[in-house]
Amino acid sequence: MSYQIISIAGLLYIIAMPIYIVYMLTKNKKLGFAATGMIFSGALIHIYGFIQRFKEMYSINHSFMRSIPITNLYESLVFFVLCIVLGYLFIEWKYKNKTFGVFVSIIAGITIGITDLLGITKEVQPLVPALKSNWLLAHVTLSFIAYAAFAISFITALIHIIMGTENKKSFKYIFSTSALGFMFFMFVSVILDVVTSSNPKSVKIFHSTLGNPSIGISLFSWLALFGTIFLFWGLSNRIIKIFENFKITPQFLEDVTYKAIAFGFPIFTIGGLVFGAIWADQAWGRYWGWDPKETWSLITWFVYAFYLHAKFIKGWKGTKTSMIAVIGFLVTMFTYLGVNLFLSGLHSYGSM
Q: How many domains does the chain have?
């Protein structure tokens, strides 16, 4: 089954994370090659699993355009992760720098792991009538390519805020280090959930940690979460030195953040909004109807448009533009997951 192949890719992403960390601490070139090789191998297996998923869908739908595996929550998460990993590998190749690999492997490993822990259905199913359109490929694929670009900008923006903020008690600094600490804790929690769960289909997220039925374990897990966040806040100076040793500067991070958004914004505009409106007209007889997904997509567009406007028209620089990039990705994630899971609407195809 395709989902088993993709799970192997997720495991390789998880293994890549500690190798990247050790590489960053030791600057051992062999470990750097090993880390890149691990995440690259995961990407190849991921692509193979994606192709197998396509074949499984084609056997049901008998249509090339309508068999691209991006039609439900599981498939969209898998494609989202694949785009992030491929985007990172391009950046590593272009800039000859591996320091972002640890964060990308964390996001990739968490996301693939969550598909198991949340019990998200992985079964290949026939398309619902509203999705039987050739606009599916153009609209959804381009949207997720843009989401992946925004995810990369989120990583570089967080690091930029940490490196560019001198006051450790400022909101931006506390928020950024807390986000990194939370990401790391989630990564460890996903591993614990996978290892300790005898029946993955019944597992809830953080079953063995934050959501454990045992009050003692749950309390300990919450204390561990806050302890991890505090540790990241306290050790931030050392984190900054590690990045500086790899010739990572705030200016470099700001540049990568901008390029990722400049790449993703027009793709999101065309694929997410324009193509989505055309498809909506064909499916529902109107271009725009203020559906929750449509509304939040427009909010996402405005946030990133404000980022570009502030940077070029107002001449904003430094951590305040990076903070806009961080907020933009949080809004993007709510547009992607929050609307489907918490709000009802015509786009509610991504349920669990």
A: 2
What is the spatial distance between Cα 145 and Cα 16, in angstroms, rounded to a whole number? 23
Does residue 144 share a domain with residue 43? no
Using CA atoms, how far apart are residues 338 and 352, in angstroms rounded to an integer? Answer: 12
Tell me what the mean pLDDT of segment 142-165 comes to: 90
Cα(99)–Cα(256) distance, integer angstroms? 13
Task: Say yes or no: 253 and 347 in one domain.
Answer: yes
Domain hosting 39: range is 1-105
* 79 shares a domain with 139: no
Distance between CA atoms of residues 220 and 239, nearest Å: 26
200 with 348, same domain: the answer is yes
CA distances for 226 relative to 204, 223, 236, angstroms: 21, 5, 15
pTM, two decimal places? 0.84
Q: Which of 166, 164, 161, 190 is nearest to 178 (CA)?
A: 161
Does residue 49 form part of some domain?
yes
Instruction: Please report whether residue 112 resides in a domain.
Output: no
Is pLDDT above 50 for 202?
no
Whether residues 144 and 242 share a domain: the answer is yes
SS3 call for 314:
coil
- Is 341 within a domain? yes
User: Maximum Cα–Cα distance for the chain, whole Å?
Assistant: 59
| DSSP character string of 81-141 | HHHHHHHHHHHHHHHT--TTHHHHHHHHHHHHHHHHHTT------PPPGGG-STHHHHHHH
pLDDT value at position 347?
53
Same domain? For 153 and 48 the reply is no
**81-85, 106-110, 271-275, 347-351: which has the highest mean pLDDT?**
81-85
- Taking the C-alpha atoms of residue 261 and residue 193, their distance in angstroms, rounded to an integer, is 34
